[in-house]
Amino acid sequence: MTLANNKTRQHIQQVDYIRAIASLAVALFHLGGKSLPGLHYGWLGVQMFFLLSGFIICWAIPENYSWALFPKYILKRITRIEPPYIASILLTILAGYLLNTNYRPDISNILTHLAYINNFIGRPYLNPVYWTLGIEFQYYLFIGVFFPIIIKKWGAISLPLICLLPLFIPVPGSTLLNVFPFFALGILYYLYLTGKRGLTEVLIYGVAVTAIGFYSAGWLPMVAGLLALVLLILPLKRHPAIAFFSKISFSLYLTHDVVGSSLVAFMGMHLPKTFGFRAFEFLTGIAVSISFAYLFYRMVELPCLQLSKRIRY
């Protein structure tokens, strides 16, 4: 399937499946799935998100994109993600105070969160999911600068070369370069789907990127990334439940730990430590997290999404 001469803006149903599965996997992992069979692999949803971002951000960029459009491009991204991110930070601070009245947030740490630089300077995260947002923002900057080069005739060869960099030069721990194979696979699928590169070329680069990723990122994370790629390729049809969880996926990702995990921790301090009560805490945490994520989506994320769409290239 290619869209060689007409990259339209139709909705890609496969994207919904990845968003829904990845966000639920991460939420279940943080809400207690670490100790439950199967769910302790939920952290791999992050790698699925990385591959999806590699594809979907390229897909959202217009065909006539040039460096002159970078300010509008990055403004659209900031408008889309920054207000929900800030709202979730405020929510995290509020929860910290409610759980411990002596809690005092570190203002400098909040500022480094807003600048997405905790990855580089080793500062602690207010919320365990925030490290991935720093990497995502690094990718937005990267693709905004290098997209015009990558889509050129020999531009795609840069992708496996970039994947090699962490093997030869020291880079900070949680940075884009260390997880770039996931993004690169998403970019390569975009290049194939839009007809910018042929299947043979994409397969050669894809195999190279995957091999490097198995070595640098580990086999299990790469398997999760490849699962996301398979989902992108499969002819999946719309499903109402999948569409719902896709819609609230970003809100669920931002808020599940501070809302659901805080609730589970609170109940754990006051309820008997039996399997039945632990299961009750887990299921309640999931239900409350999903409900809150929907409200957060409607009240915070959706207005930002609509506003970002009003920014025209």
TrEMBL record:
Keywords: Acyltransferase, Hydrolase, Membrane, Transferase, Transmembrane, Transmembrane helix. Coiled coil: none annotated. GO terms for biological process: polysaccharide biosynthetic process. GO terms for molecular function: acyltransferase activity, transferring groups other than amino-acyl groups; hydrolase activity. The chain crosses the membrane at residues 17-33, 39-61, 129-151, 163-191, 203-236, 275-297. It comes from the Bacteria. Pfam families: Acyl_transf_3. One of its GO terms (cellular component) is membrane. The lineage of its organism: Bacteria, Pseudomonadati, Bacteroidota, Sphingobacteriia, Sphingobacteriales. Residues 13-298 form the Acyltransferase domain. This is Peptidoglycan/LPS O-acetylase OafA/YrhL, contains acyltransferase and SGNH-hydrolase domains.
